[in-house]
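Anyone else keep sequences and structure tokens together like this?

Example one:
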Amino acid sequence: MELWKVSQKVSELSDLIPYYFFSLVSSCLSLSTVLVVFNLGTWGVIGIIVISFYVVIPYLLFAVPVQVLFNKHPKKFSVIYFCLYIFFSLPAVFIYSSVLNFDFSMDILTTKNFYAISLSAALFFWFWDSVFLQKKSSAS
């Protein structure tokens, strides 16, 4: 690949970095707000901030690489993209909660919270990804 093509691709990516950042931060704040409201209501704003720092790690490891891939063929509010975010959210939440709880048993898969958190994480990331990064509408 020629140097000018590499430079052009890096330039295109650097233009998108703020949008990836806004999508990531919005997703983290949305998910942690829901977690605080439904589980840890007494923590308030401090809980939202603290949980956001925990939530950013699985989003960075699992969702952002998928988001970069999806951004090659942008579609706003694509149901297929949403289903794929759910697909990647399930192992991400499983691994992350197993690591945090030091419990690698499959018992977590029987809890409603596991599925609720996985679905919420995927929903928020898909929504904010569609708002900030997926520029074309699915109709076009």
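And example two:
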Amino acid sequence: MTHSHTDPYRQALYYLLGLTEQARSHVRDLYDFDENSICLEGLNKSWQTSSTVKLTRLAFNLHNGYSGDEERDAARNYGPYFLFDTHLLPYFFEAAKLRYPEYANLHAYDFIDVPTVVADNRVEYDLDH
């Protein structure tokens, strides 16, 4: 509908908004396809459940960085403590990978080589002097 299938911002948004039956059937409460913008009022719709509110918050945040305001939704609700306490968590990680593909596809990391044997580097002091 939006012809933006290569846009990682919208990929994550659409992925999340299509995740549950409730969000799918009320997608027009959450996204204005004519204006190509999120509908913040959708956060307070009566059909929202605790899980769909979390999914909507994350979708909005990944789309444009929205993290609450004083009128609709407290900013604290967008922190991991409140967002990730749901059975949808594995899907939330997938949405983050869609939004940030440049980081999700890293296969090689620069690690510090940690020795498997711990050396005894204690210094012996002669306390008899």
